[in-house]
Structure formats: structure tokens, C-alpha cells
Write a structure and sequence with these properties.
Length: 266
């Protein structure tokens, strides 16, 4: 199969992480491993995904590295995210080096603290993350599954805000105050499990999908994009990967977005 035309790839909007463009639709790789992960990532890159989301904890970085080595997509066109689990606090540099070796890259684009270490903001880890960024081993650093309070505590201790906070996010848990608080701090919200966390039979979503002759999954992705929220979405199936990515071309009306927003208030 030939790669998607560049115009379709360019249709995916980006967030600006201090000069580093991050595609707002990323390819999620959990829980795939081994050859399945390699083949799925190769297919996703062929179909136009440019962001690949992995983590030390997924134990698939080597399989993804095999795909990055085989794809014809140049490294500079790719955005690779990985995450350090909190049980590696104190072993940050070793963990990053293991990720880089497994992925076969000399830097990752985004490195996240996978969740708050022991429920704390992870200040000592952040220092190591910032050093890795200064040394060019990672382009941007962020967190995952953090509350606003923890982000503020991290900021108070370090003077820095994370570039990204990745957390579970979908229409059913839409919380505008949370999204606005992140935006006010310059933190990009990245939604993981946007589909898995959604009632895909919800009549509001179903009727909007029918009106556009699209799948409910595409509507959920498009709704996130409308709000400027990055989505990390996983499918092991090529046809679904294509549909999820094609949501970049789906424009919802203000009324439709407002109706979906209301699902979070239910
Ligand atoms: N930071 C964190 O703590 C964290 C936590 C969880 C996940 N993540 C990241 O976020 C990514 C996405 O989250 P997720 O995998 O939990 O959930 P998701 O992407 O919301 O949903 C994945 C599920 O939806 C199915 N699916 C995808 N597209 C579909 C479509 N168009 N039609 C029908 N079914 C479809 C997939 O099945 P098939 O594969 O069979 O198509 C899979 O069962 C993960 O892969 C991971 O990279 C991060």
C-alpha cells in the first residue's frame, strides 16, 4: 500500500509546544506488543498518522522501534511520545536511555511522567526531565493523569509548567473548568482513551454521526479537535485507523458541539 498523500497528513491540526508542532491526532499503541505492534504502527504511519504514543510500561517500545526503522516516513516528520512510570523515580536517565535504545531514536519528542509518583507532583523527576530536554534527548516534557492542584504544586516547586497533560477525556467527562485551567497555564490537554471512555450508543452522538454519515468514533475525535484537545486513539484495524484519522476533515456545528458538551454534565 502506498502512503497517504501529504495533503491528508497536513489536514491534522497541530498544537504548538513552544515551537514544536504536535499533531492533534496521535496513534495509541497500548496494549499491543511484538509483531502486532510493529505491523499496526507501520500501517498507521502509512495511513497518515505522524504521532506515535507509547510508554515504558507498555513494553512495546522495541516493537515500535522496528516500525520506525522500517517506515519510509523520515524521523523529522514523526512525533514520538513515551512515558516514564513512577516506579522509575530515581532512575529517570536510565529509563530514558532504555526507551531511546528500544525505539532506535536519538531523542523523543515528548516524555511524560506517566502518573503522579506516590500521588505527589514528582519534583525530583521533573529536574531530570528538564535536564534531558536541555541535552536534546527529549524535545518537550509533560505529565499524565495530573490534577490542576498537582500541576500547580509542580509549578510552585520548579517554576515550570508541563507542556502537556495526558489524561482520560471524552464527552462523558467533559469538564470545561479543567480544560480552561490547563489552557490558562499553557498546558495542552491530550485525551487518552477517548473512545473507550465514551458511551458510543449515546443517542446524541449517534444522531450527530448519522447526520454526517460518519461513525460515532469519528464524531468523538472531531469533537476533541474542535476544542483544541489532542487525541490519542488506538485501533489495531487499518479501516478503523483510517476512519479515526479522517475525523480531521469532519467539522461539527456549534450546536452539535454544545450538545456533546452537555453529555459531561449528565
Ligand atoms: N497516559 C495514560 O495513562 C494512558 C492510559 C490509557 C491509554 N493511553 C494511550 O491512549 C491510547 C488510546 O487509549 P485506549 O487504547 O485506552 O482507548 P481508545 O483509543 O479510546 O479506544 C480503543 C478501543 O476502541 C476500538 N476502536 C478504535 N477505533 C475504532 C473505530 N473506529 N470503530 C470501532 N472501534 C474502534 C479499539 O478496538 P480495535 O483495536 O480492535 O479496533 C479499542 O478496543 C492508548 O493506546 C495509549 O497509547 C494512555
Amino acid at each position: 500500500m502506498t502512503a497517504r498523500p501529504q495533503s491528508e497528513v497536513d489536514r491534522v491540526p497541530v498544537a504548538d509546544l513552544g515551537g514544536l508542532p504536535m499533531p492533534l491526532i496521535g496513534y495509541g499503541t497500548h496494549p499491543m506488543r511484538g509483531p502486532q505492534a510493529t505491523e499496526a504502527v507501520l500501517a498507521a504511519l502509512e495511513e497518515g498518522y505522524r504521532l506515535v504514543d507509547t510508554a515504558t510500561r507498555y513494553r512495546n517500545e522495541e516493537a515500535i522501534g522496528a516500525a520506525l526503522a522500517q517506515t519510509g516516513v523520515p524521523r523529522e516528520d514523526l512525533f514520538v511520545t513515551t512515558k516514564m512510570p513512577p516506579d522509575r523515580v530515581g532512575l529517570e536517565r536510565r529509563t530514558l536511555e532504555e526507551s531511546l535504545t528500544a525505539l532506535g531514536v536519538d531523542h523523543v519528542d515528548l516524555w511524560l511522567i506517566h502518573w503522579p509518583p506516590g500521588g505527589y507532583p514528582g519534583v525530583t523527576s521533573w529536574g531530570e526531565f528538564a535536564r534531558a530536554r536541555e541535552e536534546g534527548l527529549v524535545r518537550a516534557i509533560g505529565v499524565s493523569n495530573y490534577s490542576i492542584e498537582l500541576i500547580d504544586a509542580l509549578h510552585e516547586a520548579t517554576g515550570q509548567y508541563p507542556a502537556v497533560n495526558q489524561r482520560q477525556w471524552g464527552p462523558g467527562e467533559y469538564a470545561p473548568a479543567f480544560a480552561e485551567a490547563l489552557a490558562a497555564r499553557g498546558v495542552v490537554l491530550s485525551a487518552h482513551s477517548p473512545l473507550r471512555s465514551t458511551d458510543l450508543n449515546d443517542p446524541v452522538l449517534v444522531s450527530i454521526a448519522r447526520a454526517h454519515d460518519r461513525s460515532v468514533q469519528e464524531v468523538v475525535v472531531a469533537w476533541n479537535l474542535h476544542h483544541g484537545v489532542a487525541v490519542t486513539v488506538k485501533s489495531a484495524h487499518r479501516d478503523r485507523m483510517v476512519r479515526n484519522l479522517s475525523a480531521a476533515g469532519l467539522t461539527l456545528s456549534e450546536d452539535e458541539v454544545a450538545a456533546i458538551d452537555q453529555l459531561g454534565a449528565a
